[in-house]
Write a structure and sequence with these properties.
A ten-stranded mixed sheet has the order 7-6-5-8-9-10-11-18-20-19. The protein has a four-stranded antiparallel sheet with strand order 2-1-3-4, covered by helices on one side. Among the domains are: about 190 residues, Vaccinia Virus protein VP39 (Rossmann fold); about 90 residues. α2 runs antiparallel to α3. The protein has eleven helices and 20 strands. The two termini are about 40 Å apart. The chain has about 425 residues and is α+β, with helices and mostly antiparallel strands. Bound molecules: S-adenosylmethionine.
Length: about 425
C-alpha cells in the first residue's frame, strides 16, 4: 500500500464503476433506513459493511420476487405473493419489502405452492440482516479474493465486490444455470460486471481461480466440501451454513497444521443445497413439520417451561427464537426435524416453549416426547450450553476417519456427513 493511501478509499470502487441502477431518490431513502435499522439493532457494526450496504441497490438484483413470511409469522400473510419493484401501483410497497432487514425474498419458487412454507423455494435473496452479519464474519479487507457458493440474486456478490475493492476479486457459482445467466446480466447492469459468475455444482469449488482468501457458502450445506478447504489460502477460512438438525448454524472452518477445525459463529437457516450433497443429510427428517390436524398437546413440566424461555438478544435468528437447546438435540438424536422437534415418517413430537406445551403425533409420539424432555433436562443440567461452548474438528471419512479426541471435554459427539466426520466437543468452563 502506498504511504498515506487511505485504506477505506481503496475499498470503494472507482466512481465511474459505481452502480448505475436504482430507483432513484426513494431507493436511496429506503436503503439508508435499512442501514440505520441494521446498525441500530446491533445486527451489523462494521462501518465498511454498512457503507457497502448503503451503496448497493438491492432492488437491482430482486426486481421481481415472492416475499416470504417474516420469522415466526403464523399462517401465510397477505403480502406473501409475487411483487415487482417496477409496478406502477405497488412498486413503493415492493421496495419496502426489499429493504426489510428480516425479509428473505424468493426468486425461484412460489412459497405457497405446496407443503410447509418455503418447501418449494430453491433460491432466495437472504434477509439483509443475515447478509450483513455474514459479510462482517468474513473479516474482509481490500485486495482479497473471494469465492461465493450460491450466487442467487447476485446481491451478496455485489456487496462482496464492494468490500474487496478494485484490487480484490469475486467469483460466484450457482447450480441453477438459468439463474446464473439472468444474474450475470443484472450484475453487469448494476456496474459489477467484473464479478465472475459460473454455473456449476459449488461442491467442486472453482479450481481455475483458486486460491481464495475466503470461501463463503450462502446455501444450507450438508458438509464442508474438500474442494473448498483445498482452494482456500493458508491463513484463510471458509464460512459455511452447516446443516445441524433443522437449521444451519454458521461455521467458520479452517485448516491449520493438518487439522480442520470449526467454530459456530452465527445462527441462520438457508435453503437446502442441491447437487452432490443433496439428500445426504445425517438428519433424514430435517425440515419444517407439515401441518398436522391430530396433534395431542400436553403442558410442559412447570420448571422446564420456565427454563426453555429463550435468552433475550441471544437465542434468536432475525427476531425468531432459536434455542441453543436445538444444537444439543440434533447431536443427541438424528430424528431431529425442525428446531425443537423429532420426527419420522409416521410420528413426531415438538416442544412449543412459547405456549409452554409439547405436542405429539403418531404411534412413536409418546416415546419421542419422552426423549425430547430427557434432552431438554440434560441441557438444563449442563447449564444451558450456548453455541460458543462447542468446538468441532473434521476428519476425512475416505481416510477411515477416527474419532478425534483433542483434549478434555464435558461431552463429545460424532456426526458423519458426506466427506467428513465432525467431532463436536462441549467445553464448558474452558
Ligand atoms: C440463499 S440462495 C443464495 C443467495 C445469494 N447469495 C444472494 O445474494 O441472493 C442459495 C443459492 O444456492 C444455489 N445452490 C444450491 N445448491 C447449490 C450447489 N450445489 N452449488 C451452487 N449453488 C447452489 C441455489 O440455486 C440458490 O441460488
Amino acid at each position: 500500500m502506498m504511504p498515506g493511501h487511505d485504506q477505506h478509499d481503496d475499498r470503494r470502487l472507482r466512481s465511474d464503476d459505481r452502480p448505475r441502477w436504482g430507483l432513484g431518490e426513494r431507493s436511496a431513502r429506503v436503503r439508508a433506513a435499512m442501514v440505520e435499522a441494521l446498525s441500530g439493532s446491533g445486527a451489523v457494526r462494521d462501518p465498511a459493511v454498512l457503507d457497502a450496504m448503503g451503496r448497493v441497490p438491492r432492488e437491482a438484483f430482486v426486481p421481481r420476487f415472492w416475499s416470504l413470511p417474516p420469522p415466526m409469522q403464523a399462517g401465510t400473510p397477505a403480502d406473501v405473493r409475487e411483487w415487482s419493484v417496477q409496478d406502477a401501483d405497488e412498486g413503493a410497497a415492493a421496495l419496502d419489502l426489499v429493504y426489510d432487514i428480516d425479509r428473505a425474498l424468493s426468486i425461484r419458487g412460489d412459497p405457497r405452492a405446496s407443503g410447509p412454507a418455503g418447501a418449494g423455494v430453491t433460491s432466495t435473496a437472504s434477509a439483509p440482516r443475515i447478509v450483513g452479519s455474514m459479510l462482517e464474519l468474513l473479516e474482509l479487507s481490500p485486495g482479497m479474493s473471494v469465492l461465493e457458493i450460491g450466487t442467487g440474486s447476485g446481491y451478496n456478490a455485489a456487496l462482496l465486490r464492494e468490500m474487496v475493492g478494485r484490487h480484490g476479486s469475486v467469483a460466484s457459482v450457482d447450480i441453477d444455470a438459468g439463474l446464473v445467466t439472468e444474474t450475470a446480466v443484472r450484475l453487469e447492469a448494476a456496474g459489477y460486471g467484473d464479478v465472475q459468475v459460473v454455473a456449476v455444482d459449488g461442491y467442486f469449488g472453482l479450481s481455475e481461480r483458486a486460491l481464495f482468501d475466503r470461501v463463503v457458502a450462502t446455501v444450507g450445506c450438508v458438509d464442508v466440501a474438500p474442494a473448498w478447504l483445498e482452494q482456500v489460502s493458508p491463513g484463510g477460512f471458509c464460512l459455511v451454513p452447516l446443516q445441524h438438525g433443522g437449521w444451519h448454524p454458521l461455521n467458520r472452518i479452517e485448516r491449520s497444521g493438518g487439522r480442520i477445525s470449526g467454530l459456530v459463529v452465527g445462527r441462520a437457516g438457508f435453503v437446502a443445497i442441491q447437487g452432490h450433497q443433496a439428500g445426504r443429510s445425517p438428519w433424514p427428517h430435517a425440515g419444517p413439520l407439515g401441518p398436522r390436524l391430530e396433534v395431542e398437546w400436553a403442558a410442559l413440566p412447570a420448571g422446564l417451561a420456565a427454563e426453555l424461555q429463550p435468552e433475550a438478544g441471544r437465542e434468536t435468528v432475525g427476531g425468531r427464537p432459536m434455542w441453543d437447546l436445538a444444537y444439543l438435540l440434533a447431536l443427541e438424536d438424528r430424528r431431529t426435524a425442525f428446531m425443537l422437534s423429532l420426527a419420522d415418517h409416521a410420528s413426531s413430537a415438538a416442544v412449543d416453549p412459547g405456549q409452554g406445551r409439547i405436542g405429539l403425533v403418531g404411534p412413536d409420539g409418546p416415546a419421542m416426547r419422552d426423549r425430547l424432555l430427557e434432552v431438554a433436562q440434560r441441557w438444563v443440567a449442563l447449564g444451558r450450553p450456548s453455541l460458543d461452548d462447542y468446538t468441532s474438528s473434521f476428519t476425512s471419512l475416505a481416510h477411515g476417519a477416527g474419532r478425534e479426541a483433542a483434549g478434555p471435554a464435558v461431552a463429545r459427539w460424532t456426526v458423519d456427513r458426506v466427506d467428513f466426520r465432525q467431532t463436536v466437543s462441549l467445553n464448558i468452563g474452558d
